[in-house]
Amino acid sequence: MFQAAWAQGLSLDAALSMALAHHPDLRASMLEREASEGATQQAGAWQNPELSTLVEDTRQATRTTTIQLNQPIELGGKRSARVNAARAAQGQAELDVAARRAQVRSQVMAAFYGVAVAQERVRLSAELGRLASQAREAASKRVLAGKVSPVEELKAQVAEAQALSANAVAQSEWRAAGSQLRQALGDPSAKFERVEVDIGRLPAAGQWEPLSQRLEASPGIARAQQEIARRQALSDLERARRIPDLTLTLGAKRDQQLGRDQPIVGVSLVLPLFDRNQGAILEASRREDKARAEFDALRASLEAQAVQALSQLTSALTQAQTLRDKVLPAARQAFAASTKGYELGKFGFLDVLDAQRTLFDAETQALSAAAQAHQADARLLELLGEPTPTKD
After folding, report:
1. Is 203 helix (H, G, I), strand (E, B) or coil?
2. What confidence score (pLDDT) does residue 38 get?
3. What's the N-to-C CA distance of the chain in angstroms?
4. Most buried residue among 56, 142, 248, 391 by CB atoms closer than 10 A?
5. Model pTM greater than 0.85?
């Protein structure tokens, strides 16, 4: 098992490089591709000849010895049809590798940003705890000064305890997200203290447009089309097998009694009277029809999933922008004003708690919107494959 450690933090590029280089599922797909290359090589091999010897009579004077070479000859284009079928399977293995690579990238990206969001929630909960501690200290001072009731201090203590509890939950979620990232990397022993990413930098929805063209080039569509081609090649192979093969025989017969050698030339051909490969042809033809039907179903499913993921991405980006540009600045300003006003005796402690809770909820919503955007982007990557780079 490959083991990796990032003491200074894990970047997305490093995570993707590690997963694409060492993920066991991807490595298995590559090995299957190499195996298909061997199958293609074997499909083009000629049939081996057969050497036989026959001795008649045990007495040397009247013994007859026959040596002959039998060479099967494939007719009907069986060899070329077999090679075409193997090449189609090899092409499918190539597409499986590409699809699996896109899936690994998608899983790593989703898990990576999941860790980033959990990491940011830990920071926010710690900040909330710090603010709750400051509010409790301020309440204690006002109680000692006789300006407010001791109930105010009790409320502040409850708010501080809730903040500490929220921090413990955030820590637990961060550890769970880290475990999911290690699983996505394909290395449960990978070690990292944190991930290095700007969580405020969101993906762009425009890179997935136009959706119809991206869908045509997606790994799923390409693989389904290749499956149809493979089934067509198998159908051609079964049709070619209707024609029986020819066996050419060459040899010599030594007759001791006559004292001379006799050449042997023969041809044998199976008569297709009972078995004309009808069942195999019907099976291959129906499986070809099935592949076409599955292609239509897959296309409709991929299109629906891609439209849904793109809609989720657009919605999450809109929500994140609104929270970042309007809600968060107002919530921070309201919290700062309420805290200052409480210290001056102009606001009650409940006003501070409400402003604090509003700020924390807004920060949490912003993180949730960012997480949804990155998850939708990762889902589109899995469905559509790598986005086409855009020129600046």
Report:
1. coil
2. 93
3. 41
4. 142
5. no
DSSP state of 202: P
Nearest to 73 by CA among 46, 52, 42, 50: 46
Tokens 């940003």 identify what position?
A: 113
Please tell me the predicted confidence (pLDDT) of residue 244: 92
How many angstroms separate the CA atoms of 238 and 80, rounded?
12
State phi, psi for 253 to the nearest 5 degrees: -125, 125
Distance (Å, whole) CA 76 – CA 328: 75
Provide the token pair at 314.
Answer: 């657009």
CA distances from 290 to 137, 224, 296, 307 (A): 72, 11, 10, 26
The residue type found at 194 is R
Helix or strand run (H / E) with residue 6: strand 5-6
Count of CA atoms in the C-beta half-sphere (13 A) of 205: 16
Torsion angle defined by CA atoms of residues 6, 11, 17 and 18, in that order, rounded to the nearest 10 degrees: 30
Contact 346, 236 (CB under 8 A): no
The letter for the amino acid at 206 is G
**Alpha helix stretches (DSSP H) within the chain:** 12-22, 24-43, 78-144, 150-185, 211-216, 219-240, 278-322, 328-343, 349-384
Q: Give the pairing of strands 195-196 and 10-11.
A: parallel
Query: What phi-psi label fits residue 57: left (phi over 0), alpha (psi between -120 and 50 degrees) or beta?
Result: left
The contacts of residue 278 (CB under 8 Å, 6+ apart) are none
Question: Where do the domains of the chain lie, and which CATH numbers do they carry?
Answer: 21-48+77-246+272-384 (1.20.1600.10)
State residue 72 phi and psi, 5-degree precision. Answer: -70, 140
Give the whole-angstrom CA distance, residue 73 versus residue 239: 17
Cβ-based neighbour number of residue 159 at 10 Å: 23
Upstream peptide bond of 150 is cis (omega within 30 degrees of 0): no
Please state the φ and ψ torsions of residue 269, each to the nearest 5 degrees: -145, 130
Q: What digits encode the pLDDT tens for the residues 89-120?
A: 999 999 999 889 989 999 999 999 999 989 98
- Report d(CA 174, CA 284) in Å as an integer: 52
